[in-house]
Write a structure and sequence with these properties.
The protein contains nine helices and twelve strands. By secondary structure, it is α+β, with helices and mostly antiparallel strands.
Length: 225
């Protein structure tokens, strides 16, 4: 019985649960850069991502602390525990979400204990991920940049082009994602470009040598020395 309960953490939402939420939510389609809510705002709706990706950003010196993708929820705790938003939610590409009023989200969770259990599992996993990022904070900036780029690629962000996998990332975005200074990131990006591991354009970064980036992320190679 215990093992059955533990298994209920996956998937986050079943097809049946998704259909149920579709009946009580409002579909919104927004372009890259749209802010769904800002840190400190007193709003209590939850978002269920149907398509695209949303970056979770916090701090006066903006830092990306998470990236959420299809079938994941954003801002769900504001509906459960009415408090000002602890972070901002910004569309990273073209996004389609289901906006769920707090009352509808709470009723859904109480009516669907399997989904509530899955949300608890997801919340715990997010805490673990945040803890791991703190542990990894001593990694060299170069290594952190490579890891961040590959993590986003692994989430399905980007599109294949003749120039490589194109990801909607500026150097400022990479700095915010890693917590490094923009100047440090520019130096790393320049070194990675010189070794043809990546390429850059206007608000876009191209991955060209995935394996080489992976070696840097694992600490087995460097591009700056």
């Amino acid at each position: 019985m215990v093992e059955q309960l533990q298994d209920q953490g996956h998937p986050l939402l079943t097809e049946e649960e998704m259909q149920h939420l579709a009946e009580v939510g409002q579909v919104l389609k927004r372009d890259e850069g749209h802010t769904f809510f800002r840190e400190g705002e007193e709003t209590d709706f939850a978002l269920l991502i149907k398509k695209g990706h949303i970056k979770v950003v916090l701090g006066t010196r903006p830092r990306i602390v998470a990236i959420r993708g299809p079938r994941e929820t954003v801002g769900e705790m504001a509906a459960v525990r009415p408090q000002p938003r602890t972070a901002s939610a910004i569309a990273m590409d073209t996004v389609e979400v289901l906006l769920l009023p707090a009352t509808a989200w709470l009723k859904f969770l109480y009516d669907n204990p399997r989904a509530m259990h899955a949300q608890l599992v997801a919340a715990d996993e997010r805490v673990s991920q945040a803890t791991n990022k703190v542990v990894e904070s001593d990694l060299a900036v170069e290594q952190k940049v490579a890891k961040a780029i590959l993590e986003l690629a692994g989430k399905g962000i980007g599109r294949s082009t003749d120039s490589g996998l194109a990801m909607p990332l500026s150097q400022q975005d990479v700095a915010a994602l890693t917590g490094a200074s923009v100047d440090s990131v520019k130096k790393i990006i320049r070194a990675l470009k010189e070794q043809k591991m990546i390429g850059t354009g206007r608000q876009v970064l191209y991955i060209r040598r995935n394996e080489a980036l992976a070696e840097i992320a694992e600490g087995n190679r460097t591009a700056t020395l």
